[in-house]
Write the structure tokens for this entry.
Amino acid sequence: MTSAAHVGSNLNAMDKFMSNGHNHLHVQDKHVFPPGERPDMSQVCHSYTFPVIDLKDLDAPHRINVINDISQACEEDGFFQIINHGVPETVMKSMMGIAKEFFEMPVEDSVCFHSEDPRQAVRVTTSFNVTKDELFDWRDYLTHPCHPLEEFINSWPQKPALYRDVAGKYAKEIRVLVLRLLAAISEALGQDSDYLNAMFGKHIQMLHINYYPACPNPDLTFGAAPHSDPGGITVSMQGDVSGLQVLKDGKWFAVEPIPNAFVVNVADQIEVISNGRFKSAEHWGITNTTTARISIPTFYGPSSDAFIAPVASMVDEEHPALHRGYKFEEYMKAFWSQGLKGKSILDRFKIEISP
Ligand code: OGA
Ligand code: NI
């Protein structure tokens, strides 16, 4: 591409970002979900508290109690919050601060990372998967791989100036935390603590920064349309603005932020591996009229060559295998082949049980 053409395509891209200062002033038709598919705020329950699990004793003699709590939360809710998780508050605060700076800097400074191609590892884009989305989410996001750190850090944004330093420290801490959670979940599945670590192969750790500008009419659109997460587990920093809601027993429940806690959720691969015992719950993000919201999920899961299948200990005559085994890259190909649509991807891997 000539440099003039490049500048042209960047200008074009800038105009697509929600964070560019004018796109979020009115709700354009492309963001308006049909009645019946919108977030019905009047039906969302705010009085239920998802389990809050204290990880203080995870490496202590009472480990089994914490594992039981995690097991129960994965089974009944698919979502829980964790406290005493070991990630320093300063690291969390700096990460949230730099994320905010990233989306508040002029879009000219981030547009060089714009790409609509999900194969592009480091990228900024809008909605979810704009070449496939039928309607657009009210968000921009930055995403990039984090593990192994040395392999990827030099491809991350350099503006704001401290981005690599801050996000690198955050990613390292999150990985330590995730490995402890994977060991706990392996044990909750009745396996050796290394089970998921080994199954995930080389591992993939994706840091994601969701930026949801304030929206003039949050009833019409989604920050993030209903979906379940694709990887193994997701560990999210929610900041202090609520917006995450989760489907449980057919009803939507708000996950209210707890200062310095992380939200953890089971994603599709752990649902498959646990043979449906642990729930990869459907969830969505909503916007509000007054405050931009930032959430920072880390999607952690298997590398593309890993083979995912139900663990033998969860399969018996009474609990036949619900999904066939597959290479993770097959799942991801399906994931990027459409917009966000509830739990429709996992359905493709279901084993038909004859009546
Ligand atoms: C996601 C997601 C919800 C949120 O990015 O997968 O579910 O709280 N986001 O921002
Ligand atoms: Ni999600």
